[in-house]
């Protein structure tokens, strides 16, 4: 009865074990709750098995011992099947061998045979092999699980990539035979090409794509999408994400194709792959690429596009030896437009300037916007004469076409151009840009509205300018800039009227720096207001020594007048030095009225209200001086010396001088003629009724010491003339 119960219990355990083992998935056999259940069942079986040797082997006959030994060896070998249960095979094998060794020890205690020790050693060796084999099988089993998991992942990814297009994803499978004809055409592929399955299965896949792309899309160039696809298909190689385009129902579509060649028994049988409609992605990328390479305000290619294009172009010109020119374009007067009318007006101006410039260009030109009011023009297949003509055409186009911004406000804008020529593209992009900058700087220094070619001497000039800009702040701080004074006289009374203060600077290395250059350097260094205060304060302090009634005339640049602290600094200097405002005269060129506005006239009115005289310098050189006289009551106009120099030998110059003098008499405005160098000129101006004269005939600019002495001899100077 007891034996039957034991057999039933064992059979029940075996049945339960088999159900659990086969019902649990393989991946659940590693460190899960189900695996611990199986481990418990195996451990229970092991406890039953290890009782067999100690109970039967020492006390049985030869047959019993052979039976027990065979069973234990078999049970130990079967522990290899427990490798899915981590560590269980090793534990049970060790338990069984230890049980056998214990049984051998019991048998030895009975008949003391050396044979049992020998068998125990063999059992230990047997255990070593079993454990080694178990670990090796476990390694293989683990690799199998990892491989199967990876395969399942890859399959899921492949299924995701190669899913049918019926779910409106735009993806479709394609398959060809060895000849390239489509086969097994799916509904999604037929929909993608807007044709029937039957028609597609009779056509070569590449020919379909080529027909959709059009005759001009594939010319054998392997850099195109179709070219790369043709190369891959011909060479039977794997390809991925080749983008081709075609036209369906009047709309351009883009497809990304991937495929691999299929071989059976080393024989090519065709291609299999996947296609994806990437039209929206393509246009999104095109839009992003356009924004990255183009200026959004004007639509022109930007600086980044220029650098990329030039790198490629220089390689091409190095091979072809083509001559080209870079034209560095910079607008004149754009800053004033921004400051006076706002950035929206400046943006509108840039857009209209782009249109004007583009109209004058041909297919040999490519225009770029670098930022702000700076443009770059590449002119291919050119000569120096052609490049010069192009620059002149651009300058004239902006000068001749009135540009209105905002609410119809007419804005005058000019153009300066720096040109660098190259043959064969041997230079680097950076050196070409630097050269064009130097040429542009030269054009700007000449007053703008012109163009200049680069020459190597400009690098020396640029170095000198950099050195002067670095030296200017220190020269101002140390008071190394001097002031000279040039007198001007009343032609009718022959009396000394006053002196014009002129700045002088002698650099230790570069010598005398022209006054107009000092002004440019100060503006570039951001020191123009500091320089203006320096000149005004020193000149006013010196003029306090003069006879009462003599006028001090000081030149004021556009940069000074536009400084927000100009009025405050002017009144502060007058208060500090004690110089009377009625004896101060401020001279300004008509550049300040490039874009006349209320703020400019308000500032001039406040100066005039304080008793300061306002003189319009270099009258006649501009194009709208008469308009200035209409809008603002200047105290004096100064006739440019160019007209005075030529008036005795050119009838037109003489007519202009007469007209200006007559105009000043009618308006009740004093007129000073500059550049008087001969007695004939002085006599002619006196007969015309010119109010004042100034020039080398009467006196050159004088140092403060010479000025003091000159004031004592001034009447004799005029009488002698």
UniProtKB/TrEMBL annotation:
The keyword tRNA-binding appears for this protein: no
Segments forming a coiled coil: none
Keywords: Membrane, Transmembrane, Transmembrane helix
Residues passing through the membrane, by range: 6-24, 36-60, 66-85, 92-110, 116-146
Domain GGDEF: 322-456
PROSITE patterns assigned: EAL (PS50883), GGDEF (PS50887)
Keyword Transmembrane: yes
Domain EAL: 465-715
Entry-linked NCBIfam families: GGDEF
Designated name of the protein: GGDEF domain-containing protein
Species name: Gluconobacter albidus
Organismal lineage: Bacteria, Pseudomonadati, Pseudomonadota, Alphaproteobacteria, Acetobacterales
